[in-house]
Amino acid sequence: MGYGAGIALFVLGLIFALAVKAEAPGIDITTLGWILTFSGLVVVVLTAVQANMRRRNSAIQATTHPDGSRTVTERHVESDPPPPTI
What is residue 51's three-state secondary structure? Predict the structure, then answer.
């Protein structure tokens, strides 16, 4: 799942919760709508957190040489989440 699925659940849930006035025996459409809405919100948040964990990290290192000059080095590191432990 990703942003698209989360947004789809969110929108579908809001439609059921706020716009649909139909009744189904044994099913509360409004409650189902709110459940889908919160599920979509959770999917979007978890997707954002997961994407943020895989962002590129950068490190900047400044070196001062004996003659007084400075060298600044910037390094980009691809960071993937650590593999799951068993």
Answer: helix
Which two tokens mark 80? 């993937």
The residues that bridge with 57 in the sheet, in sequence order, are 77
d(CA 55, CA 78): 7
Dig out the tokens for 57 from the structure: 């990290």
Q: In sequence order, what are the beta bridge partners of 59?
A: 75
CB 74 within 8 A of CB 59: yes
Whole-number CA gyration radius for the chain: 24
pLDDT in tens, 20-76: 888 889 989 999 999 999 999 999 999 998 887 766 666 778 888 888 888 888 776
| pTM for this entry | 0.61
Structure tokens, 4? 């698209």
